[in-house]
Amino acid sequence: MATDSEPKPLSEIAAEVGLNISDVAAFSGLDESTVFRLWENQHWLERASGRSLQTLISSVPGIAEYVTTHSVVKRRESLVADLDAAGLTVDLTVLRSSTVAQQHLLNALEAGLQIMRGEKPPRVASYLARFWGREQDRALESLFAGENGLLTDPRPLFDAAIEIAPRLNQRAYSFHSILALNILTHQVSKVTRELSEDLAFEVPGRQSAFMLRGVVMGTLIATDDIDLAERYRRILEATPMYAGLEEWSLPTYARDGRVTSDFTLPSDLSLRHTAVEVLREIDAYNDAYFYYLVSTYLPLALRRDPRFGGRVADLAAAVRRRRETVPDRRIRETCDRLLRRLAALT
After folding, report:
1. Considering the domain boundaries, does residue 73 fall inside one?
2. Do residues 276 and 344 share a domain?
3. Per-residue model confidence (pLDDT) at position 205
4. 320 and 272, same structural domain?
5. pLDDT means per 10 residues in the chain (346 residues)?
6. Is position 257 within any domain?
7. What percent of the chain has pLDDT over 70?
8. Which among 71, 232, 327, 329 has most CB atoms closer than 10 A?
């Protein structure tokens, strides 16, 4: 009997549900000779054509689950071996027990491998840019985590990330490089609690604005620095480009808006998914991040969608509840101003 990590012949999967060759051929509509060629072959998945595989999946119990599990395990084993060769050890217990989808975690491991190998910057930037989103972010966060993360020792990855980041900025304007720099510096700053001097290179326009946001968000989460949140608010207040990128970020991260290279949002956008994410963050993060939400992001969001995805009442309740736990007077006063604004919208 094969283990979960070993390939199974088609015959074993069929036998588990009491089917023989003739049964599988009859139920699937495939020629018995076709089924026979696959029957005892452990690598039958590689030999089955797309149409034959779809037919088998739809007619034989257990095949769909096997295809998914085997494909994930095969990719996992390959990535673990490649990362080990690159100097990183994957904690298989964390990988297997994570609540994040295995596919997202494997994509994060692939990103780590590309960084460690120092692959061509356009390729790395294009790949990292795909991690703009809540679940993808959770996977990448687990990759860079200093404790209870996917790697037993992520320090070599930090060093490689800091080394590769300036090279992601080789082109004067690249949408993928803008997203990738934001994502990479965000993850590094969450762990290191500050922006490494090696990452503090000059980048023009939107790249500078977006990288600043990534660093600030990561540092706020790591340090609970309320003064940093206030400095960020003032920067956005004085710089319309920065404010525009801030307004774009959470709705696209939460998938209310499309991730577009011109960093624009539709005028009739409903922040339905963004509201869910913000309500989660109000309870999940520290006081500095909460201050960023009530002082900086939420005023922008309410200007964009005064109904806040139909969750204005829920938002008011969440802000009021969190306000009572915050000792900082500045945050409490900001909450009061926001609550008055929300009351006028209900």
Report:
1. no
2. yes
3. 58
4. yes
5. 68 95 95 95 89 94 92 94 97 96 97 96 92 94 93 95 82 76 86 53 58 88 94 92 92 92 90 97 97 98 96 98 97 98 93
6. yes
7. 93
8. 232
What is the C-alpha to C-alpha distance for residues 60 and 304, in angstroms, rounded to an integer? Answer: 50
| 79 belongs to a structural domain | no
**Cα–Cα distance, 297 to 173 (Å, whole number):** 26
Determine if the pTM surpasses 0.85: no
245 in Cβ contact with 210 (< 8 Å): yes
CA distances 199 to 160, 206, 235, 339, Å, are: 11, 16, 20, 38
End-of-domain residue from the set 223, 257, 277: 223
pLDDT of residue 206: 63
Which CATH number characterizes residue 12's domain?
1.10.260
Phi, psi of 125 (to 5 degrees): -60, -45
Give the whole-angstrom CA distance, residue 118 versus residue 147.
24
- Count: domains in the chain: 3
Pairwise CA distance, residues 113 & 85, whole Å: 10
Range of the domain at 268: 234-346
- Looking at the structure, do residues 108 and 208 belong to the same domain, yes or no? yes
Residue-level pLDDT at 261: 84
